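Before anything else, study the sequence and fold tokens given here and see whether the fold suits the sequence. Record follows:
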Amino acid sequence: MEGVQLFAMTTPLLTTSSGAKMGKSASGAVWLDGDMLSPYEFWQYWRNTEDADVGRFLKLYTTLPLDEVARLEKLGGSEINEAKKVLATEITAMLHGRDAAETASETARKTFEEGALADTLPSVEVAKSDIEAGIGILALFVTAGLAGSNGEARRHIQGGAVRVNDQPLTDDRRVVTLQDLGPEGVVKLSLGKKKHVLVRPV
């Protein structure tokens, strides 16, 4: 190797203003593949950006004109949420396309602003016969990807973070059956205020 020049390029580790490493969510990695993380969940990740990071991320991850970024950076109070929506939509559009980004944005609007059941929420298919026989809520949360194990699902319930069809759940022995299907023919599982999955019988 004598006489050979070697070059290397490094970049700073991306972190949030709180010091957390970028690229991780509460449930794991933030995948770029839509089969691993839906466009809606990807959109939600960026929508939940900390206030102090919005301006920096708009500059790093979008192609918006700098004067528009400057305008969004000046938003304060509840108006900062509009800047977060722009950030989420622009990044999602860059990765998944404009249509997917707009659909994700509209799904979030219906879910959080109107309280409606958007059929474009993430969903999981479960055999109708299994629901008819009854599925324990712990196993169903694992199947829906809202918990990694029965124990984790139980802790979420004990912490008051779980709802079924928007109703708080406190019994970790609860069994979900066909009687839990809503008018749309699905069961809505919620973890906290921002994670929702529709269970569809097939």
